[in-house]
Amino acid sequence: MIFNPLTLAEARVLGTLMEKARTVPDSYPMTLNALVAGCNQKSSRDPITNLTESQVQEALDGLKGRSLAFTGRGTRVDRWEHNFQRAMVVPEQSAVLLGLLMLRGPQTAGELRIHSERWYRFADISSVEGFLEEMRDRSEEKGGPLVVQLPRGSGARETRWAHLLCGPVEMAAEPAPAAASPATPMGLAARVSVLEEEVASLRAVVEDLRSQLGLSQPGHPEPNDRA
User: Fold this and answer.
1) Residue 196 domain flag
2) Residue 160 and residue 209: Cα distance in Å, rounded?
3) Which end of the chain is less congested by CB atoms within 10 angstroms, N or C?
4) 3-state secondary structure (DSSP) of residue 217
């Protein structure tokens, strides 16, 4: 790889910056407060984290040292944005897949295509597989592989892929996936996932605006309103 392996916090922060740049461009670049909320949101994250402001700031400093993120001066606070595609020298499609793998953990090509809907529209699963295979076979001269194909678990129909930005991954076979409930077909599950992402993104935007305007949390009186 070109860079030293990322920490788990750095990968989560970087993936969040990449996600919000595409899904909520009006609130991007991101403040530290909004970035903490985005990293710790309960939907579209595996694993779910509870990073503090200091941990996110430390991760940002580490990413900045690798030229993977940088900050510009906002009106009141610093705003951060990623530099992933340029720093890693990968095409847009590969950057999208790596961002999703950093946020959601190992996934099949089919899952990646569904989850990438708001980031980039791949023509078909074969297109996703093509970019994954290209990153898997990346030459050492270019920095080495960026993803790995995990062994197929017992009863699994598809193999899952994992990123290598945090270093080598455990190559044990993936456990067989639980059977899908008839009441929640893949199409419905995908739509629910998209809605959850949108709600989480809107919450991050609202928290960002509250921070900039100096407003208190709902249910807490403003200083001027106190007797």
Assistant:
1) yes
2) 38
3) C
4) coil
CATH of the domain at 12: 1.10.10.10
CA distances from 28 to 16, 50, 115, 194, 223 (A): 11, 22, 20, 19, 30
Q: Let me know if residue 219 belongs to a domain.
A: no
Quick check: 172 and 156 in contact, CB under 8 A? no
- 0.85 surpassed by pTM: no
Residue 179: per-residue pLDDT: 45
Q: Mean pLDDT, to the nearest integer, of 47-73?
A: 95
* Burial classification of residue 44, based on how many CB atoms lie within 10 Å of its CB (0-12 exposed, 13-18 middle, 19 or more buried): buried
Tokens of 162: 């994992």
Instruction: Report d(CA 12, CA 121) in Å as an integer.
Output: 23
Residue 104 sits in which domain range?
Answer: 8-170+181-213
CA-CA-CA-CA torsion sign (182, 185, 45, 129): positive
CA distances 153 to 106, 160, 171, 189, Å, are: 13, 9, 11, 22
